Amino acid sequence: IDDYILVGDLQDGLEIWENALSPKLIYSENIKNKHAPHAITLAGDMILIADQDRGFESINWKEFVN
Q1: Of the candidates 43, 24, 27, which has an alpha carbon nearest to the alpha carbon of residue 35?
Q2: C-alpha distance from residue 46 to each of 21, 22, 42, 60, 61 (Å)
Q3: CB 37 within 8 A of CB 65
Q4: What is the rounded (10 degree) CA torsion for 33, 62, 40, 16?
Q5: CA 64/CA 17 separation, integer angstroms
Q6: Would you call 64 helix, strand, or coil by DSSP?
Q7: Cα 13–11–20 angle (5° rounding)?
Q8: Model pTM?
Q9: Which of 28, 43, 55, 59 is paired with 4 by a 20 to 30 Å CA distance?
Q10: pLDDT tens across 8-66, in order?
């Protein structure tokens, strides 16, 4: 979305990349707050996460890039 690529990975958790010719990782979860998403979707500024351990969660992704 916009200038960012949002990734939900079952093992690596949530990542946010800058969308460029050479994408740059700008946010990656640490082991303490890592999600295990089976799927993510976007609704406005919110990432909706189906997490195998925590259930359903929503996160405002713009908090991580501003």
Answers
A1: 27
A2: 25, 25, 6, 4, 6
A3: no
A4: -70
A5: 11
A6: helix
A7: 55
A8: 0.72
A9: 55
A10: 888 888 888 998 888 899 888 877 778 888 888 888 889 898 888 888 888 888 887 76
What's the per-residue H, E or C state across 3-61?
CEEEEEECCCEEEEEECCCCCEEEEECCCCCCCCEEEEEEECCEEEEEECCCEEEEEEH
Structure confidence by residue, pLDDT tens digits, 22-35: 889 988 887 777 88
Number of residues written out for the chain:
66
Among 58, 34, 47, smallest CA distance to 5 is for 47
Amino acid sitting at position 19: N
